[in-house]
Design brief:
alpha/beta, eight-stranded parallel β-sheet
């Protein structure tokens, strides 16, 4: 399904604004990026069930609850991570993921996406903490919600190989939100990574990247070879979601949605 992220829409938008912005677009799926506002309401099923009904009445479906908002839990970006060395921070992040999983359940969203946090003094220990937390989350989560991991160039999980390893440890439960721009920043062959991951990908994040600098650009303004990527998408018979990740353009969201629609029409049979 073609999806659009609330993180690529203005910060001041309410859910009603999101619904109105997307209802006339090509995008039928919604990626809900958790914010402090949404987190405050995470334990209110009535709020989320009403949102679900209103979006469905507009032909929209929640597909992914995304926890990549860098300022979700503190004024310091991406702090705390799920594998942080700080015990209290790790507990807070774990509880926040649990609450966000319930939001995905209330919305009928099949996926929740995690980013994994910045490296600290002992990355190996962080990876152990993260692995322990992920195992507990898989055991406790709503059965219908799958956990997706997004690789971020600066985070402890940042490569295609790591995504494959995590999925292999939790078959049928842990998949990937694969960000093509992040793969480009990491110096990977993006199209080859798409083929390596294959069915591990449940959500494909799209943006362009120039000179392997982590700055999300509109398609055609960077170096990514999208022809090769979409050829790989066709070879693996990809059936998952496709989501533009254009948060730098949230204040000109109409132009970004229009550019995304034109770009996707040029690469997909719509």
């Amino acid at each position: 399904m073609l999806c659009y992220s609330t993180g690529s829409l203005p910060d001041a938008f309410t859910l009603k604004d999101v619904r109105e912005a997307l209802s006339a677009s090509l995008f039928r799926g919604v990626e809900l990026v958790m914010t402090p506002f949404f987190l405050e309401r995470a334990d209110d099923p009535d709020f989320w069930l009403q949102a679900r009904n209103e979006f469905e009445s507009s032909g929209l479906t929640f597909r992914n609850v995304h926890m990549g908002n860098p300022l979700l839990l503190s004024g310091e970006p991406h702090v705390p991570g799920l594998g942080t060395l700080d015990d209290e921070g790790r507990k807070l992040k774990f509880e926040t993921v649990e609450r966000s999983l319930r939001v995905a359940h209330f919305l009928g969203a099949p996926h929740l996406t995690l980013t994994t946090g910045l490296p600290e003094a002992n990355v190996e220990r962080q990876l152990e903490y993260f692995a322990d937390a992920l195992r507990c989350l898989v055991e406790q989560k709503p059965s219908e919600v799958k956990i997706l991991i997004e690789q971020e160039p600066e985070h402890i999980i940042h490569s295609t190989g790591q995504l494959l390893d995590l999925s292999a440890r939790h078959p049928g439960q842990v998949f990937a939100t694969f960000d093509v721009g992040h793969s480009e920043v990491a110096g990977e062959d993006v199209a080859a990574s798409v083929e390596r991951l294959g069915p591990v990908i449940r959500n494909l994040h799209l943006e362009d990247i120039k000179d392997r600098v982590h700055r999300h650009l509109l398609y055609g303004d960077g170096d990514i070879d999208f022809d090769r990527i979409f050829a790989a998408v066709r070879r693996i018979d990809y059936q998952g979601d496709i989501t533009p990740d254009l948060y730098p353009f949230k204040d000109d969201y109409c132009a970004a949605i229009s550019a995304s629609e034109k770009f996707l029409r040029s690469h997909l049979s719509l």
